[in-house]
Amino acid sequence: MGRTYFVEEAIGQYLSDLGTKLKPYVTGLLIGQCSLQRDYVIRAVRTPPKEEQKEDNISHSNLASIDEEWITTHASQVSRMLPGGLLVLGVFIVATPELSKESQNALRKLIFSVEKSLTKRRLWKPAEEEVSERAALQICSSTKKVVCRTYDVQDPKSSAKPADWKYQSALSASWLALSCTVNVNIHIPLLATSPNHDLEKNTKNGLNRWSKQIEDSVFLINGQVRGDDTELLEGQKKSKGATQSGTHFLDVKVLTQLSQGSSHRSTAAVQICSGSINVKGAVKCRAYVHNNKPKVKEAVQALKRDIINTLCDRCEILFEDLLINEGPHKKNFERAYHVLPQRLFVPVAGSSVMLSDYKFGDEATEEIQERFVEMLDQSVQTEDIHIAEDISTVDICPVPDHLDAPQPQQLTKATLLLKLQQNMGM
After folding, report:
1. Domains of the chain (ranges plus CATH)?
2. What pLDDT is attached to residue 309?
């Protein structure tokens, strides 16, 4: 028996409208949430046209012209705009009857390419029971016939399995929302052996270590520690802060462990460093969970991933911005403060879910609106853009050249002594 996809009713009209375009095919992404019992699709987003396609209105007659790299890049950009609990669930194609035989092979190739691209960026590992099937949706532009199949992205030799595609009204109108603020103060040493002070690589390594702390943290939901397999809303009254759409907000506190337990052996390490990176600030995190008796572990997992993703994505965006503005040739290693982009949320019509994005301080509202149209095919009103947080920073700090050689040695010994005392429980 194949998987069942419950789909927001408005998506049917959206896909039908795409089929009326002049081009013989349109590709795009399916966005939603996986669960062990069923999957939910709350958005479908067409692949944005490339500049030359806008200008020349080129019409291709076969699927060999599909730009795989362009579609995977779009998927990576869209994944940054998804809060916890949402992911790219699959790909779709609306094509003419003449292209129906080619469509399934094209979809299979795209599914594996998109998943490979998204997996490469993640700092978290999938759970053992994680759903690894992704949807390939094929729609005939003439007959409107829908064919949905799935592929197991963990198995490169996976063959297509049939899946049910069922439309449902107000699918995500009363999903549950979890929110928390995480105070971040990450100190990342820059090893002297690192070539050209590779800031991006060092930062990612430091965030990877920090992400493991988040994974091991304790999550208090409305002030309580809850069992993984208990239902999220068990014993809880509906929040007074619920909106008209029925959103139930749950406040979460994240308690990170200050030190490892006695069962873990720690070893002090001394490394020669050329400086450090400090990431500081308070980040707003949010996750959404379906309302079909979700378990606590589903909700906590979604929020953990949002915490890790939002910081990692911001650092990626910052380094991309620096590359554009300063160029790859810049190798000077100077003291510098950089402001991370701030997170903002935008509502989805007919849903309790809000999508996310990031803006730099000097970025105009019009740029954000243009990005939502391009990436998510969604118009956004200025008053619907909610900036969620204050400024967070990245401080790149080199070791001053004028320090005498003995000083770092004395500091290293003091640090080593402190580590040894901590390990001995002093």
Report:
1. 4-167 (3.40.140), 175-233+246-258+269-398 (no CATH)
2. 95
